[in-house]
């Protein structure tokens, strides 16, 4: 990019975003987040960082986790054309990847959508246990700047949420989700989120799967 000046043109280098960002579920601060990041790195997904953007916990503390969950079910599961920018994503990595789990999957989707619309290439967008709206999901699939979308539903573990779920289905399954969250046993939607006896195996298996999908 060249800027005009009173003397001679000044060239400014614009860094392309690089590295892998992982957003966890509502609150973005669960005890599973750092061990999951460690599993990603161990599997070979280098330059992997914790996503901390856009959580209500940053302003109202732990109550923000509930607000995040409500936003996931009502608001940001649909396409939002606002600015979803990142800072510091200039690691010496070969790829630009976004991974999101539950609420975090919507942050990943919105951010990928924003960058793709502005001409940046996203190598992988991974949506885990995502309550994303079908229309928004199709918009992402149609954007050629998003090279690969990996959808990981957790239905086999009893999660009623899946990518493309309707608003009615979310409301219909609210009690089931509340029960799964309250049990703290790593069941259903919270298969990766609760720290249980075999969590390390679960996190490692997820990391290996994503490495197999091509994330580096």
TrEMBL record:
Superkingdom per UniProt: Bacteria
Protein's UniProt name: Uncharacterized protein
Organism for this UniProt entry: Iodobacter fluviatilis
Matches recorded under InterPro entries: AB_hydrolase_fold
Upper taxonomic lineage: Bacteria, Pseudomonadati, Pseudomonadota, Betaproteobacteria, Neisseriales
């Amino acid at each position: 990019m060249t800027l005009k000046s009173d003397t001679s043109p000044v060239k400014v280098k614009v860094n392309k975003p690089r590295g892998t960002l992982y957003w966890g579920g509502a609150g973005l601060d669960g005890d599973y987040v750092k061990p999951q990041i460690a599993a990603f790195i161990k599997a070979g997904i280098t330059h992997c960082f914790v996503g901390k953007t856009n959580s209500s916990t940053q302003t109202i503390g732990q109550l923000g986790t509930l607000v995040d969950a409500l936003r996931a079910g009502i608001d940001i599961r649909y396409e939002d054309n606002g600015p979803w920018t990142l800072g510091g994503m200039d690691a010496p990595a070969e790829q630009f990847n976004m991974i999101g789990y539950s609420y975090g999957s919507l942050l990943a989707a919105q951010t990928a959508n924003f960058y793709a619309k502005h001409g940046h290439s996203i190598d992988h967008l991974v949506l885990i246990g995502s309550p994303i709206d079908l229309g928004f999901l199709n918009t992402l699939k149609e954007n050629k700047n998003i090279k690969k979308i990996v959808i990981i539903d957790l239905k086999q573990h009893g999660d009623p949420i899946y990518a493309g779920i309707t608003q009615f289905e979310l409301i219909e399954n609210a009690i089931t989700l509340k029960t799964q969250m309250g049990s703290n046993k790593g069941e259903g939607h919270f298969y990766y989120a609760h720290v249980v006896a075999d969590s390390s195996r679960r996190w490692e298996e997820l990391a290996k799967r994503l490495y197999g999908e091509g994330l580096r």
